[in-house]
Design goal:
The protein has a single domain, classed as Tetracycline Repressor, domain 2. The chain is an all-alpha fold and 189 residues long. It contains ten helices and no strands.
Amino acid sequence: MAGDAREALLDRCLAFLKEGGFSQLSLREIASGTGTSHRMLIYHFGSREGLLAEVVRRIEAEQRAALTALVMETDDPVEVSRQFWQRLADPELAPAERLFFEIYAQALFGRSWTEPFRASVIAAWAGPVEEMFIQLGHGPDEARRRARLGLAATRGLLLDLLITGDRDVLDAAADLFARLITAPPPSTA
C-alpha cells in the first residue's frame, strides 16, 4: 500500500514539475503544488534531494521506454535517432531536463544522495543502446564505444539546446550525428 501511495505522489510531483519546474522550490512549496504536506514528501522520499533524484529516475525510465518503443516501430536507426531527438527537444520536457542536469552537476561533487543516480545515469542506458548497435552489425567493443559516444553527444546537444535555444542548428546537428553514429561497420571483405 505504501508503495502505491509513493508512486501516486511521485506521479503528482512529475505533473507539477512538467508545469514549469520545481528544482528552485522548497520542499514546502513542492508539497503545496502537489497537494500534500512536506512531511509526506519526507516520509516517502527522505529529503528534498531524494525527491528530486527520484523524479529524475522516473523520467529517465520513461525516456528509455520511449526509445525502446521507437526501436520496435522501425528498423531504420537514423529515423529512431531523429524521432528520439525530437522527443528530447520538446520544450515541454525542458523543466525535467534542467532538473536532470542539476542532479548531474551535484553528482559530479559526489553528493551522497546522488549515489543511485551516479550508478544508473550511464549503466541504465548503456546496455539497451549497445544492443541497438550490435543489431546494426557492430561487435561488442565497437557497440560499447558507440553507445557511450551516443549518450555523451546527445546529452551535450541537449545541454546546448537548453542553454541557447538554437533549435534549428541543434536539430541539424542531431540529424548529422544520427547519420554518423549509425553508419554500418566497415566491410571486412
